[in-house]
Design a protein that fits this description.
Arc Repressor Mutant, subunit A, about 75% helix, about 150 residues, flat, 3-stranded antiparallel sheet, mainly alpha
Length: about 150
């Protein structure tokens, strides 16, 4: 009984190891795509957002529900003043704007802008190009390694 249990544990471990290696490889690729995207955004003419500003921007544009300063602070687990500073910068760049909620004047709604939608489209394009380049690089690497072995 103990031997069969040990065997099943070893069998399970041999199945988990490739999955962990695949997950690590995928994570490495995603981090590389993120790096390439951020480098492209920094190099081009246009807004240069901090990670907090980018997090606020992406949360507002990728999640459909209406956003408030209070809700963004809770979702991102940062203070309301930090969200306000991020929104100040996004407002300066016309990537988002704040509006008093007509139903609850104590609440401030965050609205999307046309310029913000265009910026998101640009981010998607840059990420798509970076992801495609990584995919090509991944496909070419094994071919080169195979040629060396031959």
């Amino acid at each position: 009984m103990a031997q069969s249990k040990a065997t099943s544990i070893r069998t399970a471990a041999t199945k988990v190891a490739p999955a962990k290696a695949q997950a690590a490889s995928t994570a490495d690729e995603l981090v590389s795509v993120l790096r390439d995207t951020i480098v492209s955004l920094v190099r081009r003419d246009g807004p240069d957002l901090s990670s907090r500003q980018l997090a606020v921007f992406l949360t507002c544009y990728l999640q459909e529900e209406g956003h408030t300063v209070r809700g963004l602070a809770a979702e991102l687990n940062v203070s309301k003043p930090a969200i306000t500073r991020a929104l100040d910068r996004l407002g300066e760049l016309d990537l988002a704007r704040r509006k008093v909620d007509p139903l609850d004047r104590r609440s401030v709604l965050v609205q999307r802008t046309l310029k913000g939608a265009a910026y998101l489209k640009e981010i998607r394009s840059i990420m798509g190009e970076a992801g495609a380049a990584k995919k090509v690089e991944k496909e070419v690497r094994p071919v080169r390694a195979g040629r060396r072995a031959a």
